[in-house]
């Protein structure tokens, strides 16, 4: 039974007994002789172990002591590796499916599903609600249930993450740009080919850390209760009436700054500040992170467009928010049902109340002049749209990237593809398309006056003010800047302090002067560019037209539907002209002759004769010759 003893139940004559009697410790056994030690070693390869022990003994005899030590070290290393690997796998299987155990997901993708953190260092959960001062914390039971539900949500989300991809070369590095193909039927601006990468590859190319913000590290915003205007051309109450002195100081970029940036009447944007939002909607907006696609329709001015070609992964991780006023909401409810989740397709609808700049729209409807009414309505609508368009970083404080599209546009590309193409590939933090035709601010100002976009006096005042500050016509001397006039219907940006400062100062300009953001864009950009190494990237308008499709404004579209269709040309069958004498009806005797002539002409037409008919007039009478 030496084989059995070698498995652990040793007799008293072995190294020591493992059996205890009556709960007492075993007595120490005398040290075995050397022959017994050799027998124990040889028993390892006895009947129980088969030929494996004999093979091991022979290997030990043939090898030297140094080689045996090396062999034992290799075996120990292999055993240690197997033990660590098995413990890691068992730990991953037993751990809850939280964020930290999502193996195979990159850090930058993992950060998109992390809980949102408040300024106090506590994550916002579903159990939190907003009040006038900040956040109310729910009970521990509610937070625990919300945590469990969030874990389940993340577990389901982890299955939709695309597999990780390692790219040695960028798929679009050999892509050659060429202008849109010639189309005789479409002479206006058209889309041009753009090279996008698949969503999986775009995720692999996502930066792991936020872009660097030059000089500026911390940006705060001014607010107050008793705001009084001290200048004639001062802006609005929503903007906080910044003075010209405060305007000049806001371009003195430092490590930490505090500037005007809308929502000046309160500390929480959307809570009694103008542009007011329900607390439940605001709480959901604060929980949005990673990427947000935002748009707005005010005054029932546009028809809501649903995004297309959006991947399943983007539907799970990207927020789609559509801001509406009460007038637009009422019009949509007449044709569309909004469910309890406040969603219409991909859009999460947010109704905004107490809109700033809405007085001009209400007062404009009472004017007798139709042209003045249209001008004021457009002016008020543009001013209201500038709030979510330029201040998304204030409405979504936890978002890393944002894509703004006007309400008349339909998004037809995946958000991750757009971010990779226009931000990550170029290593920029702000991208906007340039105007398809105009590059000069002075030309844009004249076009706005001709189109009745704003009153001429306000446009002239703004341009003259900028001229005194050094505004010049665009020329090749400004290269690599390619244009001074943007097409502001699409903005793609990363939310870092320098881009937030740029959009804040841009909003202050449209608040002080005209709401035509194309006129003030280059002034703000150039002032910041002179002080820090940063600028806004401008891509081609034909590239923008590749990922958004423009629709008609609601008023124009309804006018097209109401207008009668153009008259179709009527095909009238022409009867053969009868060439008869004028006095045939007056002279009955010649009626038979007329019949003969008519019959003969009919025979000629049936026979396919192409002989010309010539008429000859003699003495006031017309005779027919064949």
TrEMBL record:
Pfam families: TOD1_MUCI70 (PF04765). The chain crosses the membrane at residues 69-89. InterPro entries: TOD1_MUCI70, TOD1_MUCI70_glycTrfase_dom. Residues 219-553 form the TOD1/MUCI70 glycosyltransferase-like domain. Residues 122-142 have a biased composition (Polar residues). Residues 597-616 have a biased composition (Basic residues). The keyword Membrane applies. Keywords: Membrane, Transmembrane, Transmembrane helix. Residues 1-40, 122-153, 563-626 are annotated as: Disordered. The keyword Transmembrane helix applies. Residues 1-26 have a biased composition (Low complexity). This is TOD1/MUCI70 glycosyltransferase-like domain-containing protein. It comes from Oryza sativa subsp. indica (Rice).
